[in-house]
Amino acid sequence: MEFRHLRYFVTVAETGHMTRAAERLGIQQPPLSQQIRALEDRLGVRLLRRHPKGVDLTDEGRLFLDEARRLLADAEALTQRMARIARGELGRLSVGFTSSAATHAFTPRALRECRRRFPDLALDLSEANAAELTEALAAGRLHAAFVRVPVAHPPGVDMHTLLREPVVVALPLDHPLAAGDEPLALRALDGQLLILVRRPGAPGLYANLLALCAREGVQPRVVAEVERMLSNLNLVAAGAGLSVVPESMRGTHVHAIRYRALAAGPELEAPLTLMVRAGEAQGALATFVALVRELAAAPEPA
Fold it and tell me: Residue 302: is its pLDDT beyond 50?
């Protein structure tokens, strides 16, 4: 039995006439009659009573009509659902983010806007460091992730730089360098107690910082390496040392941390990067990537 047989039968039942049903379906009347006969033979019951003025439904035909309409409606609903999936309006995405990416206003704004525009696009959110997110993307466990400086670019992962921002130095309030408003020179970090996000977990920004220091002859003393950027700010707030973070993290621990600009130039910019599975930018993922890039290209809301 094919769906066209169901459609033929429903049309005949609704018109009560083979010729009128054939006209509505755009086929000839004899082939339509043959298809209905074949359907009845397949089911082993008579669905219609033929008479000179048309056809009537048998008891079996009335039961079959209800089921045929239900099946056709289900098929249409499935077709529409699959079309929405193909258009990226329906589905489920796993999206990760680093703690530092999440503190930028853009990341939660993009996630909120995705939920507003595409309420049937479910987002499964998780937090990890950049290395863990990159590995999860490459392994197919994540669809997309927001990070700062990518720590690696394995096969199967695409990178989209969304935004760039300068870095700042985070200092305990009682630190000698906390006073003043002008940008700190890189040489001011010489001999300072430096807290880093653990380099195996997120080498990007901090590897760049240490490389720049080495080139300029600046030698900070690394006293701690942590897994999350919020963790290093917790240690700064506790007075364990200073750190360097993206400017958008200025609002963290304002009661215990002073933030000062760092005159390091574009070499230490902190980008916001969207990583996605390569070759899978279709459906829901294509919708998400297009939305995020659209928002990144638009002016920041007032």
Answer: no
What is the rounded CA–CA span in Å between residue 196 and residue 212? 15
Confidence of residue 200 (pLDDT cuts 50, 70, 90): low
Q: At what angle do helices 18-25 and 3-15 cross, to 10 degrees?
A: 130
Residue type, 142: L
Burial 208-242 (b: 16+ CB within 10 A, else e): bbbebbeeeebebeeebbbbbbbbbbbbbbeeebb
Does the pTM surpass 0.85? The reply is no
Second-level CATH architecture of 3-86: Orthogonal Bundle (1.10)
Domain 91-163+271-297 carries which CATH code? 3.40.190.10
What average pLDDT does range 77-101 have in this prediction? 84
